[in-house]
Design goal:
The complex is a heterodimer. By secondary structure, chain A is an all-beta fold. Chain A contains no helices and eleven strands. In chain B, the strands form three sheets. In chain B, strands 2, 4, 5, 6, 9, 12 and 13 form a seven-stranded mixed β-sheet that branches. In chain B, strands 1-3-8-7 form a four-stranded antiparallel β-sheet, with no helix packed on it. Classes of the chains: A mainly beta, B mainly beta.
Chain lengths: 113, 116
């Protein structure tokens, strides 16, 4: 099946720094999603990307859908302590009978105040 | 709206026991799914449903059964629990925009299961 490689696995940064993480795939997706999960909670959608080349922002978060449709990145600017959590990318090729999301293994972000 | 709700929050089972994890959504979403989350593995799809009466297998379906008798509910049944099923289970739902296309999924808070 399709696999997503998400990197880095973990990051430890100082408050105020910018953060960048990315996902790559061996095959094409037509939708990329970025989720954040806090301890003891389910993943919460941050940004959804539906078009190759699309660049979308949500506050301090910016994500892009790669031109090749095989990658996506998420940037967080001016990090704050509440950015701590696990960030997941997910890809989908919804079409026909395919309703499945494939998730990356996550990037654990720690922000030092 | 309560969104996606899951019960129980925690459960401890002995090997061989059976149980049902409950999932309900009040958003009239057509699409519902179950994932398990294990350390270092991300989320893996167990089963999903595109509407009442319709279910299909995901990436890791063995040892689990599902049914979808109503739009609101999508229970996950463990037939004979094994230690390998120790995990955190998440239910998710989304609106189906058109055949073959789903809107983004919204997740419940999870059920933490320990099988001894």
């Amino acid at each position: 099946g399709q696999q997503l490689n998400q990197s880095p696995q973990s990051m430890f940064i100082q408050e105020g720094e910018d953060v960048s993480m990315n996902c790559t795939s061996s095959s094409i997706f037509n939708t990329w999603l970025w989720y954040k999960q806090e301890p003891g909670e389910g993943p919460v959608l941050l940004i959804a990307l539906y078009k190759a080349g699309e660049l979308t922002s949500n506050g301090r978060l910016t994500a892009q859908f790669g031109i090749t449709r095989k990658d996506s990145f998420l940037n967080i600017s001016a990090s704050i302590p509440s950015d701590v959590g696990i960030y997941f990318c997910a890809g989908s090729n919804s079409g026909g009978s395919n309703y499945k999301l494939t998730f990356g293994k996550g990037t654990l972000l720690t922000v030092n105040p | 709206n309560a969104g996606v709700t899951q019960t129980p929050k925690f459960q401890v089972l002995k090997t061989g026991q059976s149980m049902t994890l409950q999932c309900a959504q009040d958003m009239n979403h057509e699409y519902m799914s179950w994932y398990r989350q294990d350390p270092g593995m991300g989320l893996r799809l167990i089963h999903y449903s595109v509407g009442a009466g319709i279910t299909d297998q995901g990436e890791v379906p063995n040892g689990y059964n599902v049914s979808r008798s109503t739009t609101e509910d999508f229970p996950l049944r463990l037939l004979s629990a094994a230690p390998s099923q120790t995990s955190v289970y998440f239910c998710a739902s989304s609106r189906t925009i058109s055949p073959g296309s789903i809107e983004t999924q919204y997740f419940g808070p999870g059920t933490r299961l320990l099988v001894l």
